[in-house]
């Protein structure tokens, strides 16, 4: 199958206020097929969010390029919707109005009735039928993230970008939302990229996991294929030998990166 997202030779260097340069990413190459759910995993600061930001068009690569559906990414667009850990909702608007704001802007050409149906459909899909008219302060963390998901999905993006979407939620809410997201993505064949620190979350949701080495100049160490078919039932797959092996491989990779980071920090002290 042809690639839908192409990340080719991407490097990213930030200029620091004192004039120094911080090379964060180097030669990142990744091809994502339509319907893939790809997770990025690696230690804090290795550049996972930077990759997502470049794909979103919120930041520019210093070298290389990103293409989505054969179009070069140069700026943000409604074909790529991002969901952040901190929900990013407008606090003075209700759940409905937060979703409506995006839908009305992007889907101006649709009739008022159609836009209304879309907003209602996606808020119901994420289980917010009875809380549509509440403001963010009246919603739990899980409910706020549901609004953010509904807002992203209602725009019908080509690519869903998720930056630690469940990082701020308690374990039970996180598990429920993971299951719902998996169901939505597999049913609607949504292509997604997700940054996560959670090995189980990556294994549950993704069909491929990109393992990033530590920076500076982080590169891709390996891409792991996750062979379980969708929809996945956590207690069933977690019990399998295959799952335990993949979990072990990922943990070992992260542990190894942590050791490298420790040794490097000791060397620079000397
Ligand atoms: N605008 C910026 N200017 C300068 N440096 C930046 C900027 N944005 C990110 N960085 C640096 O780039 C590196 C990678 O950051 P990034 O947020 O992509 O890492 P991450 O892997 O997503 O980390 P975490 O898991 O902690 O969220 C870090 O060293 C960070 O300090």
Descriptive account of the structure:
The chain has 270 residues and is an alpha/beta fold. The protein has a domain at 1-79 and 160-168 and 188-270: Rossmann fold, CATH 3.40.50. Helices cover 40% and strands 23% of the residues. Strands 6-7-8-3-9-10 form a six-stranded mixed beta sheet, with helices on both faces. A four-stranded antiparallel beta sheet has the order 2-1-4-5, covered by helices on one side. The longest helix has 29 residues, at 241-269. The chain is globular and about 65 Å long. The mean pLDDT is 92. Adenosine-5'-triphosphate binds next to strand 2 and helix 1.
Average pLDDT metric: 92
The percentage of residues in β strands lies in 15-25%
Q: What is the number of helices?
A: 8
The assigned CATH architecture of the domain at 1-79 and 160-168 and 188-270 is: 3-Layer(aba) Sandwich
Spell out the CATH superfamily of the domain at 1-79 and 160-168 and 188-270.
P-loop containing nucleotide triphosphate hydrolases
Structural class: alpha/beta
- Quick one: CATH class of the domain at 1-79 and 160-168 and 188-270? Alpha Beta
Number of strands: 10
Which oligomerization state do the chains in this entry correspond to?
A: single chain
Within the largest sheet, what's the order of strands? 6-7-8-3-9-10
